[in-house]
């Protein structure tokens, strides 16, 4: 998804993932004196087994800074420790599997959740069931849609509209963060399978599933508004090109209700299983052979992934009812249908905030807290050292700088150069009774740690 300045603030879908040479965090290199993200993202150094809690603390600090800038609030950013991988309206939850490759995605997701905290009305959303007009429930019942399905589908449509609303706000007010959003959507939303699905004969029957697939991909350039009855009206109601007119979650909700009303007036009545059993589960054609949705849509005119992508690029797709541009849909193979189903499921989970985030252990959480209190960061030093006699450049080395060497930091046992055991047996004192922690000066440094990472306590 990308912001289109020439379309009244609307959204357009890119034809493919963005190619970038480096992380978007480099944009902020000169604006963040507390921690230079690229300093520890770009260094090729030996890493200890397990999580590098100093690096994780740095990632968390950087993401917190970004979130607080965007929201203009002091929003807590926490690691997922209780399987709560979604925002509750009070804090942003991030996963613990962070590295230089997925940092941009993590920032984008954190900014997206942070903008929900700033702009979404969580109290209103929690009472969504009671906000839906009674006439919608009545209309839904008349076509065989139960109450819980009404709530679920209105919520999904609202999530889509609300996401467009808050994303536009961030794009408009903080354009320097757009790259992070692009990375997030490339991972969680963009899919070649979705492009193929939109241009294929799939999801062209007037049922709720087809409408939901088409609606959550309305910002895709391959949307095909003629694929379903009422889809053009739905596109007009949502109004991506003028999404800035929606100023609250209530405004987005009103749009979602109108959209679902169109859907209920467009779908055929859903027959119950009992009614189906009376009429028979299969429908016979004139020759007495059974037909199914798969047979009516599948046919034998399947196409390979390579041919389909080539056809999409050339706008030359064949067999089926016409697309908006005059081209004709293709039939997907069983394999392609399964891939499309997984891509659609991934999109739905994103909209519901059901994104898997690696859980942080209690021990690692305590270690990160201690590191944050100590102000420990990674720094790259020695970059300007002159080449040696043979012309070899030093290139700098990654060092750990500890501003405040505390008891809790030593207790984490993260650094072999400063441990409880070393403090007791090399100093011959019990460090618990010693308020001045000077273990680095008297601690034996193993050969494996004499080069590369060093500890420099400052301010003690």
Per-chain topology:
Blueprint (H helix, E strand, L loop, with lengths): L1 E3 L5 E3 L24 H5 L11 H19 L5 E3 L12 E3 L8 H17 L2 H5 L1 H4 L2 H9 L4 H27 L4 H11 L3 H8 L8 H8 L15 H8 L10 H18 L6 H7 L3 E2 L5 E2 L1 H6 L6 H10 L19 H18 L10 H13 L2 E5 L15 E6 L4 H5 L8 H6 L13 H4 L12 E3 L3
Parallel strand pairs: 3-4, 8-9
Antiparallel strand pairs: 1-2, 5-6, 7-8
Helix pairs in contact: 2-3, 2-17, 3-7, 3-8, 7-12, 9-16, 11-12
Structure notes:
The protein is mainly alpha-helical and 460 residues long. The chain has 2 domains: 2-274 and 294-351, no CATH class; 362-457, no CATH class. It contains 20 helices and 9 strands. It has helices at residues 37-41, 53-71, 103-119, 122-126, 128-131, 134-142, 147-173, 178-188, 192-199, 208-215, 231-238, 249-266, 273-279, 293-298, 305-314, 334-351, 362-374, 407-411, 420-425, 439-442, and strands spanning 2-4, 10-12, 77-79, 92-94, 283-284, 290-291, 377-381, 397-402, 455-457. The strands form 4 sheets. The chain has a 3-stranded mixed sheet with strand order 7-8-9, with helices on one face. It has a two-stranded antiparallel sheet with strand order 1-2. A hairpin with a 5-residue loop joins strand 1 (2-4) and strand 2 (10-12). The protein is globular and about 75 Å long.
């Amino acid at each position: 998804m990308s912001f289109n300045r020439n379309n009244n603030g609307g959204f357009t879908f890119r034809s493919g993932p963005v190619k970038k040479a480096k992380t978007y965090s480099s944009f902020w290199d000169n604006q963040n004196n507390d921690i230079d993200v690229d300093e520890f993202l770009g260094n090729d150094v030996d890493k200890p087994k397990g999580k590098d809690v100093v690096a994780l603390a740095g990632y968390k600090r950087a993401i917190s800074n970004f979130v607080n800038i965007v929201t203009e609030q002091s929003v807590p950013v926490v690691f997922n420790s209780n399987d709560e991988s979604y925002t509750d309206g009070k804090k942003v939850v991030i996963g613990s599997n962070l590295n230089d490759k997925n940092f941009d995605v993590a920032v984008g997701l954190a900014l997206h959740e942070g903008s929900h905290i700033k702009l979404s009305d969580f109290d209103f959303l929690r009472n969504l069931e009671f906000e839906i007009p009674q006439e919608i429930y009545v209309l839904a019942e008349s076509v065989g849609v139960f109450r819980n399905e009404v709530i679920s589908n209105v919520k999904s449509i609202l999530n889509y509209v609300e996401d467009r609303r808050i994303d536009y706000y961030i794009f408009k007010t903080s354009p320097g963060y757009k790259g992070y959003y692009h990375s997030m959507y490339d991972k969680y939303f963009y899919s070649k399978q979705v492009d193929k699905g939109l241009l294929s004969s799939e999801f062209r029957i007037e049922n709720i599933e087809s409408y939901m697939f088409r609606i959550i991909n309305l910002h895709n350039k391959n949307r095909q508004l003629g694929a379903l009855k009422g889809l053009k009206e739905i596109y007009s109601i949502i109004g991506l090109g003028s999404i800035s007119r929606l100023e609250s979650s209530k405004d987005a909700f009103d749009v979602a209700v109108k959209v679902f009303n169109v859907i209920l007036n467009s779908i055929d009545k859903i027959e119950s299983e009992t009614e189906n059993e009376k009429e028979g589960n299969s429908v016979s054609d004139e020759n007495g052979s059974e037909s199914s949705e798969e047979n009516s849509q599948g046919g034998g005119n399947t196409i390979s992934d390579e041919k389909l992508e080539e056809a999409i690029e050339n706008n030359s797709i064949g067999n089926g009812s016409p697309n908006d541009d005059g081209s004709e849909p293709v039939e997907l193979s069983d394999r392609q249908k399964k891939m499309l189903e997984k891509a659609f499921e991934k999109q739905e989970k994103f909209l519901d905030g059901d994104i898997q985030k690696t859980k942080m252990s209690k021990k690692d959480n305590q270690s990160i807290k201690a590191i944050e209190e100590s102000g420990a960061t990674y720094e790259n030093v020695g970059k300007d050292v002159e080449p040696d006699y043979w012309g070899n450049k030093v290139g700098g080395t990654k060092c750990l700088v500890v501003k405040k060497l505390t008891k809790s930091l030593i207790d984490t046992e993260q650094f072999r150069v400063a441990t409880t055991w070393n403090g007791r047996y090399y100093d011959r004192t019990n460090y618990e009774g010693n308020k001045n922690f000077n273990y680095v000066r008297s601690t034996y440094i193993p050969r494996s740690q004499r080069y590369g990472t060093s500890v420099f306590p400052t301010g003690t």
